[in-house]
Amino acid sequence: MNYPFYFNEGFTPQSGIDTIAIWIHPWIINNHSVFYENGNNNDFINLRFKRENDPITGNTIRTNFFVDIQAEEINPYDDVLDQILNILCFLVENRILHNPKKIDLCNIKGFFYTNFDRLFALDALDFYHDLRNEDVRLLGKLNKNYPNTRYSSRVRGNPSILKVYSRQERLKQKRNISYEKIENIEYTTRIEFSLRRGTCEYLNAMNLTGSYENIFFKYLPFLARKWREYRYEIVEVLERNILYAHNLRQIIAVSRQRIPQYELHNTPKKPIPFKSAKKNELDYNFMAVYYSRV
Length: 294
Known about the structure:
8 helices; alpha+beta
């Protein structure tokens, strides 16, 4: 994917958004062959699919398609939602998504913005904070397979919302960067908040307007609450040593007081393909049908 990136792998800012996963309505995809199961972790724009199976029979119900946007592709000083729309338009220009004949390319971006919740869905959002190894102590039960990683407990089978791991070990496993460069990384331990539709009620693309700092402050009360709930399970931070980690210090400070109300948009309904609208329900698929046929 020949798309400009802002940071080299392993050398992103000390705090930021690690991954944004956007679900794509399959009816607007023009070329499904470029999506791979589990994707390619070496791509900063990662196209993947995941089969959704019936929990009883194991049969595939539907296949979901995603574009994962990594931290290297995100300019923290520009409007993040605008950057997402630019990448979606890039997929149109490269004929990965349909290019409607009746919609000028210049207008597709506005069309995507207006109809985002009918064509796409924000499926995952990860916030990260990188610290020096000596400023962190791992807690909880050791997993022999992942000795440098800790996960918070799962709720109702959903993925862990808070985790901490060694960046150096992850980067060495990928083998994209020389060991010498990896050893010179200043902030070697990553604390990550993994927001998913099963663990967060505020996965709405409209929450991603503004720069990284704007978005962080919107989610700050939510992140503080999750820090209060789960951090004692997995990590201890030497707070007196992390003056460089101002975003994480804000999370810690807010977690110790009465947490304010969330000023976030709620997660909208996902337009599920091949599911007809019932009585008193909206048809969330009509726009995808229109877009793919014009």
